[in-house]
Recover the amino acids of this structure.
């Protein structure tokens, strides 16, 4: 599947250069993501995947280049304003509030302080509320009164995803959602992402689990030392043994 459609991109990244102090991390990246699609970012540790997520969300703004969301430049906008405009993060390591209950974690994005958007969802996108999230994640419904710190790793990941949905985002940034999960739970996370796509949510997925990314992503980028060294579909990536071996540590034959 091509990432091109008749509609314009929901998210555009153009020529961004991002630094941590004097460390030059992202070196001129370009990327497009459209509504109702999943774009996967693959690469080894330390190549710039999480920095890309942070740059898009306004947490580590690029020093050069531009990020546009729904046709509007994000340059100079604080992270909270970007979130209020329809972007949510499922961060690496989950980062749920361990001292709050499941219910309290889920309701945080609906608080006055969070600036919940009042507009109704459009273009077939689902409108999420507490009942809908608990129906999607029955494990959380069973643990609704438990503290976040008492949940298993898989339950915490479900909570992080559910919390993001409660913000009713147009775009969800997912940073290593399968990290530390058992294979059964990895499959559950993959199923959730596929359902979110059918509900017109867009997902920018950073992943090291190649099998998961190949299964769910419409389009893939491989990053190495802050630059994209591949962009294309799963089938196209399977025909690039040098990329698979050098940048992902996978022999091409293992994809068969």
């Amino acid at each position: 599947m091509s990432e091109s459609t008749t509609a314009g991109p929901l998210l555009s990244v153009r020529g961004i250069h991002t630094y941590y102090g004097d460390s030059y991390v992202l070196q001129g990246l370009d990327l497009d993501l459209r509504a109702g699609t999943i774009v996967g970012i693959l690469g080894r540790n330390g190549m710039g995947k999480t920095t890309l997520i942070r740059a898009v969300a306004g947490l580590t703004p690029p020093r050069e280049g531009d990020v546009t969301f729904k046709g509007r430049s994000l340059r100079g906008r604080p992270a909270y304003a970007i979130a209020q405009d329809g972007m949510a993060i499922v961060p690496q390591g989950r980062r749920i509030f361990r001292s709050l209950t499941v219910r309290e974690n889920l309701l945080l994005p609906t608080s006055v302080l969070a600036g919940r958007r009042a507009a109704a969802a459009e273009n077939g996108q689902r409108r999420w509320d507490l009942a809908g999230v608990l129906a999607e994640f029955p494990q959380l419904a069973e643990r609704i009164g438990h503290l976040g710190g008492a949940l298993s790793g898989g339950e915490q990941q479900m909570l992080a995803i559910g919390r993001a949905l409660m913000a009713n985002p147009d775009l969800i940034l997912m940073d290593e959602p399968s990290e530390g999960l058992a294979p059964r739970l990895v499959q559950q996370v993959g199923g959730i992402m596929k359902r979110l796509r059918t509900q017109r949510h867009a997902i920018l997925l950073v992943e090291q689990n190649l099998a998961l990314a190949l299964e769910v992503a419409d389009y893939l980028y491989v990053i190495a030392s802050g630059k994209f060294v591949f962009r294309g579909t799963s089938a196209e990536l399977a025909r690039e043994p040098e990329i698979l071996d050098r940048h992902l540590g996978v022999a091409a034959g293992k994809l068969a």
